[in-house]
Amino acid sequence: MGDKKQYPELGRTRLTAGWWKVNRHYTMYMVREWTSLFVALYSLIFIYGLSLWWLGSSADFLNFLKNPAVIGFGIVLPVMIYMTAIAYPFRLWPFNGTRDPSFLVTGHLLGALFVFVTIAGSLYHGIFRFQSTLTEVGLLKYRRTLEAVGYLIIFAGIIILGYILLSWYAAGKIM
């Protein structure tokens, strides 16, 4: 009972630093894994910014958001989330050159839904943020009119975007 059971050593190949460069599948896997780094870094940046806000430095937080690196992360982040969470698991990426690269975004219903939510959400958020700054730019007396125009832009943009995506779906471009 005192003897420990010995398990045979399995022969394992030592991986070198560039093991993932040998096979295209491994390379694409590593690229996918690296995209999650952007998500984690942006989360840390956002937590830092929120800590500035919490400490009462709202002006520092707003200046922090104007930093080109933070703006760049904000632009790259949706792409990285799409690559990590949608394109790779649903085999929309990587592609082998036999299909149009637009398939990456519109080739699958989930990809098209992501495009719709990203564009419609950004449109709504942008117009809503503009409306909240009417006081600062001296346009408060035109608030009702500008709100109506803003919501009309949102509504028209969502209808046009939905029409385009639905027509692609009907034509078989989205599966």
How does this structure look, described?
By secondary structure, the chain is mostly helical. The protein folds into two domains: 22-95; 102-175, no CATH class. The protein has six helices and no strands. α5 (109-132) packs antiparallel against α6. The longest helix has 31 residues, at 24-54. The radius of gyration is 24 Å and the shape is flat. The N and C termini lie far apart (61 Å).
- The sequence of SSEs as H and E is HHHHHH
Sheet with most strands: none
Q: What structural class should be given to the helix and strand makeup?
A: mainly alpha
Number of strands: 0
The domain count comes to 2
**Span between termini:** 61 Å
Output the keywords:
mainly alpha; 175 residues; flat
Short description:
This protein has 175 residues and is mostly helical. It folds into two domains: 22-95; 102-175, no CATH class.
Topology:
Elements: H1 24-54, H2 58-65, H3 68-87, H4 103-106, H5 109-132, H6 143-170
Helix pairs in contact: 1-2, 1-3, 3-5, 5-6
